[in-house]
Input
Amino acid sequence: MPELPEVETVRRGLEPAMDGARFTRVEVHRGDLRWPLPKDFRERLEGKTVTGLGRRAKYLLADLSSGDVLLMHLGMSGSFYVFAQRGGFAEGGTDGGAPGHYYHQRSQHVAHDHVVFHMSSGSVITFNDPRRFGSMKIVPRQDLDAEPLLNRLGPEPLGNEFDAAMLARACKGKKTSLKAALSDQRVVAGLGNIYVCEALYRARLSPKRMASTIATKSGAPNERAERLVEGIKAVLTDAIKAGGSSLRDHKRTDGELGMFQHHFSVYDREGEKCPTPGCRGTVKRIVQNGRSTFYCPSCQK
Output
């Protein structure tokens, strides 16, 4: 499933085509994604302008001129593609008169093009999702804080308010592993298996370490919490710069792959030499909560 860097990469790719543009026509080829689309989905979008495109954890949020918010999730295999609308789809190349330059040959898997947005910007945005675990929902802006999909999410890890003190308070007294705690969207939003493994490596902390050990008995942060927050922010920032990680289904809106998978230190590196200078350890794979965890037992304590 795409994690925060992949979703942020998609948001940045969609922004030139969507932000400030009006939905001139909406095509719904399939109304049952992870959940059924609202019956008035098309009517609530057509003629409305996108006044802002944001992200909360792994969700995309398009603010509309009507006061509604279009809430979108990529699920396991969802992708957005942006095409030029000029009597047809662009067949590669760029067009200086269209926003964003996100143009490429059209996907051949048109059977999985479930929702298509025709925008006044001159772009056509297609949501393609073979497994149909993605979702779209329209929520009135005033009800967003109470939205069940969002209201239990923890802090944004790249936000200014996320620091060692906040993470330590969330982990105080927890009887779970650090890996499990960081994967809990209520503790910190947007992290998943890949970036938890990579952040723990950068912080030199074992994924098996108890989460409570990054806080004092009073809940104050210790040096481990400081290192972990620094590692989380650094790995997410680096991954966003690289366009995210493409392992199975993630692609950018221009059809290209993210490149951060070429910079993994431990994830999916079982049996390889630890990249830490001077460390003689070997990357190990274990299973925690049904998911693979990769780490170096020698330098992650």
